[in-house]
Specification:
Elements (H helix, E strand, L loop, with lengths): L3 E5 L9 H10 L4 E5 L3 H13 L3 E5 L12 H9 L5 E10 L7 H18 L3 E6 L2 H8 L6 E3 L6 H10 L1 E5 L9 H9 L5 E3 L8
Parallel strand pairs: 1-2, 2-3, 3-4, 4-5, 5-6, 6-7, 7-8
Length: 205
């Protein structure tokens, strides 16, 4: 039996001693982790981590709420590294309309371009979607891709739509909360083969 944390952020911004964290992960019986980039700084650190630690695999991407310093040249950088050793996906990418001053147009452009790169290099995508479920689904329908819906918070009907498209449903520690009725309903009603385990460390319980 192999345990994989399919989505986490084990970077120096949040952890003083990453070597110690890696040892804790191993001693907990987790065999592999996928560390996700969100901006250029974290993406560069993902490349360092995958080369340094045997259990670490990486996803490179530009997160919808981390686009203040984003430049078009970052797309070229992503293309240069998407096929690097131990880079298994493009992520964490997507849409996030949670904040009032959100530049939805910029988010959509950056999201679509990363999906095009994923399609070009046949890479799975790790999708972030907050308060943007219909737009996310509509856009993903335009591409021939597979991947995961990270920290899924949508309805059972939405989960089934994503599964039909070839996506898996990412589930974290929130499922242990008694009031997490939505995600509990989802996992009770879809097959285990469509569920991925993730921690989103250090952000979720």
């Amino acid at each position: 039996l192999m345990f994989i944390d399919t989505h986490c952020h084990i970077t120096s911004e949040d952890y003083d001693d990453i070597s110690l964290i890696i040892e804790k992960i191993k001693s907990a019986g987790v065999n592999k982790i996928i560390v996700n980039g969100t901006d250029m700084k974290s993406n560069l650190e993902v490349l360092e981590l995958v080369s340094k630690y045997d259990i670490v695999y990486g996803a490179l991407g530009f997160h919808p709420t981390e686009l203040d310093n984003f430049q078009d040249s970052d797309f070229l950088w992503l293309e240069e590294h998407v096929m690097d050793d131990k880079i298994v996906a493009i992520g964490e990418i997507g849409l996030d309309y949670h904040y009032e001053n959100t530049d939805k147009n910029k988010q959509n452009i950056v999201f679509r371009k990363q999906l095009e790169i994923a399609e070009k290099y046949n890479k799975p995508v790790i999708i972030h979607s907050r308060d943007a479920s219909q737009d996310t689904l509509d856009i993903l329908k335009e591409y021939n891709l597979k991947g995961s819906l990270h920290c899924f918070s949508g309805s059972l009907e939405m989960a089934r739509e994503y599964i039909k498209l070839g996506y898996l449903i990412g589930v974290g520690g929130v499922v242990t909360f008694k009031n997490a009725k939505n995600i509990i309903n989802v996992i009770e009603n879809i097959d285990l083969e469509y569920i991925l385990l993730e921690t989103d460390a250090p952000y979720l319980t």
